[in-house]
Amino acid sequence: MTVDLLAQPPFTPTDPAFAAAWQRGLEVLQPTASELEHGLELHRSLTVCEHYGFLPGVWSERAMASYLSAGDGLSYVDFQRRQSYLRTADLAQSPETREAFLAALRQAGVHGLVLPVNDYGESVTDAIVRIAAYRHLCLEFSDSLFQTTKADDLEGARRNGSTGLIFSLTGLPLFGAGEMTDPGALLDWVEIWYGMGVRFMHLGYNRRNVFADGCGERNDGGLSELGHDLIARMNEVGMIVDVPHSSRRTLLEAVAASSQPVIASHIGCQAVFDGARCKSDEEIKAIASTGGYVGIYSIPSLLGDDGDLNLMLRHVAHALRLVGPEHVVISTDLGHNPEPPQPLPQGLPGGWRRVAAAGRHKFKPEGRTSLEHFGGSLAWTNKPLITVGLVKLGLSDEAIAQMHFGNLKRVLDAVRKGID
Fold first, then answer.
1. What is the mean pLDDT of the chain?
2. Of 168, 171, 205, 350, which alpha carbon lies 20 to 30 A from 126's?
3. Which residues 6+ apart lie within 8 Å of 395 measured at CB?
4. Position 417 confidence tier, pLDDT thresholds 50, 70, 90
5. What is the pLDDT of residue 121?
6. Which residues, in sequence order, are CB contacts of 101 under 8 Å at separation 6+?
7. Would you say residue 248 has pLDDT above 80?
8. pLDDT: is 354 or 244 the higher one?
C-alpha cells in the first residue's frame, strides 16, 4: 500500500529526514484510513512518554573536530565521554544542529522520556559527566527540554509542547564510589544519585555483579545479601527498582523483596521470542503483582528475526493478554540516529572513520537482517505510528492513554507517597 504522506493528519513528516521511515512504517502497519486518522489525532491529544529511550542524536562539526584532534589513540572510555558530551552539549552551537534535534523531538511527539544517564560499568565520574551534559541541554533548550522527577510536570509538557526528562541509572556506578569493603558507604550513593534526580535504577546489566545476577549468566544465583540491602535502600529513598537485564531468579526475588512497585522497563515476551532479554509469563505477572509495569522495546534483533513494527505489536499484545493495559508501556530503548554526514571529513581516526562510514549498518547484528530501527518501521521518530498500532489492536482510547502515561504516573506517585 502506498500512502500519500502529505495528505495525512498531524505528525505526517514533511522533513525528508523522517519521511522514508514513516512510509516504511505505513507499509508494515497497513492501517485503514480511519485507524490512521484516529491514531494520529489520539497521539496528538495524549500525554505521551518514552518509558526508556534516548534523546535524538545529531552530527556536528565540533564533535567531528574533537575526534579529529584525538587521533587513533582515543580509548573506549574517552570515546564514550566525548560522545556523551559533544553530541549533547554541542547541539545548540549552530541553527542547523539545533533545528535537527528539535525536529526529531517534535516528530516523535514525546512529552516525557526516562533517560539512561550511564553505561553499566562506568565510573561515578563518567555518570556525572553524562548528567552534566544532559543538564546542559536542558539549559540550552529551556523552552523545549527540562529535567523533572514528577509525573504531573509531564502533563504540563504536553500543554506547552516541551519534553521532560526523568533520569535512570543502568546499575549503581561502583568505581570511585568508595571502598568496596564498606557496603554502607556504597549504598549511601543511592541517596546521592536520588538527589541528582535519578528515579529509576537497574539492579545490573546482563552479567553478575555484587548485587545480583543478570540474564546473561549461565548459573542463576539471584540476589546477593547486598542486593537485598540495595533494594531496601532504594525503597527507603524512593528510587524505583528496574529489572530488564536481570536473571529470572533475580527478578522474582526482587519482586518479593521490594515494598514498592518493581518495573522491567524494556523487555520482550519470551512466549513470542525466546531471547535472553525476553521475560516469561511468570515474570511479567510477578512484575504486575507489585503494581509495576513492563515496557516493550523496539530493537529488531531482540524482538525476533527480521523484527518490525508488527512483531513489536505482537509482543505488546501478548503482554496485554497477560496483565492488561494497567501494566504495559512502550519503551523503545532507542533514540533517533541520523546518518553521518557525507562525505566524511579526512583525517578522522581510522577506527572511528570506519564506524562512521558504515552508518546505520554498523548496528546490524550477526545473523539478523532487519534494520527496521534505523530508517524503517521501528525508527524512533515513528512513535505516532505505535499509537496507530495500538488502535489497530482494538484498544480503547483510555487504555492507550494509560499505556502512554497513566502507568508511569501511577508508579511515580505510588513511590513518592510511600516515602512521604
1. 86
2. 350
3. 320, 325, 403
4. confident
5. 74
6. 55, 56, 58, 91, 141
7. yes
8. 244
Instruction: Report residue 253 as a C-alpha cell.
Output: 526475588
Query: Tens digits of per-residue pLDDT, 43-82?
Result: 999 999 999 999 998 776 666 666 555 555 555 556 555 5
- For position 342, what pLDDT does the model report? 66
| Closest to 309 in 3D by CA, of 20, 29, 27 | 29
Rounded Cα distance, 374 and 363, in Å: 9
Question: How many other β-carbons are positioned within 10 Å of the β-carbon of residue 10?
Answer: 11
Query: CA torsion angle for 313, 317, 319, 324 (degrees, to 10)?
Result: 130
Instruction: Give the CA diameter of the chain.
Output: 64
* 390-to-3, 109, 111 alpha-carbon distances in Å: 19, 16, 18
CA distance 240 to 254: 11
Q: Residues 393, 320: contact at Cβ < 8 Å?
A: yes
pLDDT band at 11 (very low <50, low <70, confident <90, very high): confident
Q: To the nearest 10°, report the CA torsion of 106, 110, 111, 113.
A: -130
Q: Which residues of 65-76 are buried (b: 16+ CB within 10 A; e: fewer)?
A: ebbeebeeebee
Helix %, strand %, coil % of the chain (to 5): 50, 10, 40
Backbone phi, then psi, for 172, in 5-degree steps? -75, 120
Answer CATH for 5-419 from 3.20.20.110, 3.30.450.20, 1.10.520.10, 3.20.20.140: 3.20.20.140
pLDDT tens-place string over residues 277-333: 999 999 999 999 999 999 999 999 999 988 999 999 999 999 999 999 999 999 999
CA distance 122 to 343: 33
Cell matching residue 63: 564533535
Helices (H), 109-175: 124-140, 151-160
Are 264 and 204 in contact by the 8 Å Cβ rule? The answer is no
Q: Which helix (H) or strand (E) holds 50?
A: strand 49-50
Cell numbers describing residue 176: 570511585
Cell of 83: 560522545
**Amino acid sitting at position 402:** Q
**Locate cell 532487519: which residue?**
370
Residue 142 — φ and ψ, nearest 5°?
A: -60, -25
Mean pLDDT value across residues 21-29: 96
